[in-house]
Amino acid sequence: MAKILVSPYSSLYDDSQLVIKVINLGRNEKVTLQSCQTSDKGRHFHAYAYYLTDDNGNIDVSVDASFGGYYTGVEPLGLLWAMKIVPGPKRRFSSLIKQNVTKPAVILLNVYQGHIDIDKIGIKGVNKCLIVTSIFERRIMKSNIRRFIVEEDDLRGVIFVPQQQGSFMGVIDLGGVNGGMVEMRAALLSNYGFVVLCLSLFGAFDQMKQVSSVDLAYIERGIEYLLRHEKVLKEGVGVLGISFGGSVSLAAATFFENIKCVVNIGGALSASGFKDLIYGNKIWTPTEEKLNGHQVVDGIQRPSCMILTPKFLEMHKHFPEFQKSKASILFIYAEDDKCINWKEQSALARKLMKSSNKMNYEIKSYPGTGHMIGPPYVPMFSMTYLLPMSKFPTYLGGNLKEHAYGQAYSWKYIIKFLKSQENEMRKFDLPLKSLL
């Protein structure tokens, strides 16, 4: 009898050591493997790939190549990162980013006889070819992580706290231009021994859904909250943000010396999203965003880039002088980003750093990746209604396979960067007697 073996049955979402096998099939038999997952919003995603069994009637996805479907070649986790929303009349652009991080993602595996174009035939049409089915789990949080809602004064967010003994570096996680919180990255980060505050800039709980400006003093209050936590190292914090959140992270480092490191994932070196940045009596205005001049194909905006890169001599109008901060900075850029011009942005970053003789920064870029570089093995999120005034959904860039690899590689580098910064902090956090 055919059987699907998944090891381990329950693993962390960013764990690359997942083995999927199918055994006891016919010798040299053509089969289609399909993965299915339902998002927290009730939307259905799937991926499928074509395999040929060996002389013993077995398939090991870790070593056997796919001959077609959603990906080709040996891709041990292709059935995860290749998922797309199931085609249909009510298809909407959506993401498989896990919203409820306290519950695991449940993935259904189906094995069908023959190489079948499931998108063409439809799910109901392939049921007669079904051989065997099974499920497995991908967890977001380790069992020793605790999640708490934060509602202190005007602060709104969620904090993830490791429960083992000791103190940890605090990290603030900031989201993008549409506001609210995406807890998944913050929860996964906490598994590596960080206290992570997923801080909502706007749009969560009782906050306004849209704003025309973001005050950096709000980040300052978030830092103070995090540093008061009994589990957090007092030397300082890290701030990580994606897209608009990356820009805010950089801007905040200009003013707050207790920000020891910044990870900017695709954030522009300017105010953006039609939102000013404010601190005290200073205001930085967005660079123009070309929303209405893009080519529209099949109802989708396909920009070459949306946010204009400021000129070096006009930076003071659009962004604080983050290059003068003492914080170590990691820039993560997507080389197929349709929101910013990553080459112009990285060149400007280097020029700004050189102007201040700043050396403690790194720039990493990843081919084929689109704007939304998420946690590993989350399927590529390539289209969205980027702003409330958008007439059409916007293509954010990215090639499926390369984007998946970019997410996996960048994630490892982000963890390495944050851990190195934590180690530097611990040198200053040692008791005096240990230094004598």
Report what the structure shows.
With 436 residues, this protein is of the alpha/beta class. Helix content is 21%, strand content 31%. The chain has 10 helices and 24 strands. The chain has an 8-stranded mixed sheet with strand order 10-11-13-12-15-16-21-22, with helices on both faces. A 6-stranded mixed sheet has the order 2-9-8-4-5-7. A 3-stranded antiparallel sheet has the order 1-3-6, with no helix packed on it. A hairpin with a 2-residue loop joins strand 10 and strand 11 (155-162). The protein is globular, with a radius of gyration of 23 Å. The model is unreliable at 432-436 (pLDDT under 50).
List descriptors:
6-stranded mixed β-sheet, 8-stranded mixed β-sheet, globular, 24 strands, alpha/beta, 31% strand, 21% helix, 10 helices, 436 residues
Question: Could you write a compact summary of the structure shown?
Answer:
The chain has 436 residues and is α/β, with parallel strands linked by helices.
Tell me the layout of helices and strands:
Elements (H helix, E strand, L loop, with lengths): L2 E5 L2 E3 L6 E5 L6 E9 L5 E9 L6 E2 L17 H4 L2 E2 L19 E9 L4 H4 L1 H4 L3 E10 L5 E8 L2 E8 L5 E7 L8 H8 L3 E6 L13 E3 L1 H12 L3 E11 L1 H10 L5 E7 L10 E4 L2 E3 L10 E3 L2 E3 L12 H4 L9 E7 L7 H14 L5 E6 L16 E2 L9 E2 L4 H29 L3 H4 L1
Parallel strand pairs: 2-9, 12-13, 12-15, 14-17, 15-16, 16-21, 21-22
Antiparallel strand pairs: 1-3, 3-6, 4-5, 4-8, 5-7, 8-9, 10-11, 11-13, 17-18, 19-20, 23-24
